[in-house]
Design brief:
Blueprint (H helix, E strand, L loop, with lengths): L1 E11 L5 E11 L3 H15 L4 E8 L4 E3 L6 E13 L4 E13 L2 H11 L6 E9 L2 E5 L26 H8 L1
Parallel strand pairs: 2-8, 4-6
Antiparallel strand pairs: 1-2, 1-3, 5-6, 5-7
Length: 171
């Protein structure tokens, strides 16, 4: 699940004035608590002054489309069109996709390109620039994957159990 976290901090600008920022970031987490912990951990790397998490809310994104060449995030409304045979009418199911791009046209192109394998009909009725500055997926690389973590105290990794011990456990 994606959580939008707003981070509030102050910074002194070139004219020696204190300027306060309240910026949105997106975190992939399992709960509000984990989102808060991840936001704190990640922001410590980027913000050298004191900061606080001013808001956390569940983000309504069905999918995230990162694009290495993009520098901003756009919230795209995607309408999947289906035909309701019982009522004899067209139905639209809306979802929101966050797309990384340089401008609105680029966001449209990136989203349309990611949907080329889609079997059903769709339309993109809305694309707006999002206030989200950066997205932090749950696992960026292999070092963070749970398979690389050490087993908790009192537990034995499965690969360390012999066949003889395994049959004793099962019986």
């Amino acid at each position: 699940m994606w959580y939008e976290c707003k981070i509030k901090y102050s910074r002194i600008d070139e004219e020696e004035r204190t300027k306060t920022f309240n910026q949105a970031y997106l975190f992939d987490a399992l709960s509000f608590t984990e989102a808060e912990a991840r936001a704190t951990e990640e922001m410590r790397q980027y913000i050298s002054t004191d900061f606080k998490i001013s808001n956390i809310k569940v983000a309504n994104f069905a999918e995230i489309c990162p694009n290495e060449s993009g520098d901003r995030w756009f919230k795209c409304k995607l309408s999947c069109i289906s035909f309701d045979e019982d009522k004899g009418a067209e139905r639209k199911a809306n979802s929101y996709i966050l797309v990384q791009a340089n401008d609105v046209k680029d966001a449209y192109d990136v989203l349309a390109n990611s949907l080329t394998d889609t079997v059903g009909d769709f339309e993109i009725p809305s694309i707006v620039e999002s206030p989200i500055l950066d997205v932090f997926p749950y696992y960026d690389n292999e070092e963070e994957a749970p398979m690389n973590e050490k087993a908790p105290e009192g537990f034995v990794p499965v690969e360390n159990i012999s066949k003889n011990e395994e049959t004793q456990i099962v019986s």
